[in-house]
Amino acid sequence: MTSPVPLSILDLAHIGENQSVQQAMAKSQAIAVLAENSQFERLWLAEHHGMRGVASAATSTLLANLGALTQSIRLGSGGVMLPNHAPLVVAEQYGTLDALYPGRIDLGLGRAPGTDPATSNALRRDLNKNVGDYPSDIQQLQRYLSDDSGDAQVLAVPGAGSHVPLYLLGSSLYSAQLAGKLGLPFSFASHFAPDALFDAINIYKMNFSPSAQLNKPYVMAGVMAVVAESDDDANYHFSSVQQQFANLRRGANAPMPAPVDDIYKHLSEVEVQTINRTLRYAVKGTPDSVEKQLSEFVEATGVDEVILSFPVYDDKQCLESIRLVGEMHSIKAAPSWQA
Questions:
Q1: Residues of the chain with pLDDT under 50
Q2: Is residue 303 part of a domain?
Q3: Cα-flanking dihedrals φ and ψ of residue 256, to 5°?
Q4: Which secondary structure element, helix H or strand E, spans residue 290, and what is its range?
Q5: Measured between alpha carbons, how far is 28 from 14 in angstroms, rounded to an integer?
Q6: Do residues 307 and 220 lie in contact, with contact meaning Cβ atoms separated by under 8 Å?
Q7: How many domains would you assign to the chain?
Q8: Which one of 47, 166, 307, 322 is CB 3.0 to 4.6 Å from 8, fit for a cystine?
């Protein structure tokens, strides 16, 4: 008998055109409360900087607010871009969150800048930092969060002894291999970088070494979701993220666009085809259709958890999509992948 696969949410605190940062924050607050009431496993916030359509730059600050509004749902970063930060500061921030909301905090880590080079420089990120420093930064962060401070002169307070669980995020085979070697859960960004999904899962599992945190591989995968009363309505709302990705490809830093009736009046056929390939694991349509699509995704990939983002411009429709996915209880783990 297979058990349901946990469903979680990745929130970017989207800022829509003609919407304010305050509105985006209020939407994130509503998402957190609804996610808990709908029994989602966890809610993560993504770290992006200098993007007109994303309000989750100060990830730990927003998480502190969401923690105060909820009681039980796990909260975390999806993720902290570790090269942007000193490991000690991250340990203190997430140690503080764990002290406020014990047993509810996750710390997802990535190595991308989450922004453009100029903003990276403004963050005082070392643009010449060798990628080889990333594994040692992760291990240093683990030491700050562990009980074993030894004779170290540097101590994270809060943080030491909190054992906040780490998750490694990535869209590459490098991240998959590293997560396996470190014995950490791995979350693959298939919602926007789908090409290496299956290879990454295989490499992660092949390289997995049990750790103090995890005794067997644990794979999460990202999926975008738009649920509506009809396929036409879902396609209409999905046009916002299609336009958003087109803007990114054109180098336009813009808020999330409002949906449009005919995407081909706004994007070329080649643009739509290219973007749809990038977003090929997105699930959209009626509740029955989306439930079937999610089940097929889990069956094909064997993932242990699906983390969904809801790139919907309209607040009411975004919350309705989340509510409807929260009612989907028949998405089961693939039998062939059971331990």
A1: 114, 336-339
A2: yes
A3: -65, 125
A4: helix 287-301
A5: 8
A6: yes
A7: 1
A8: 307
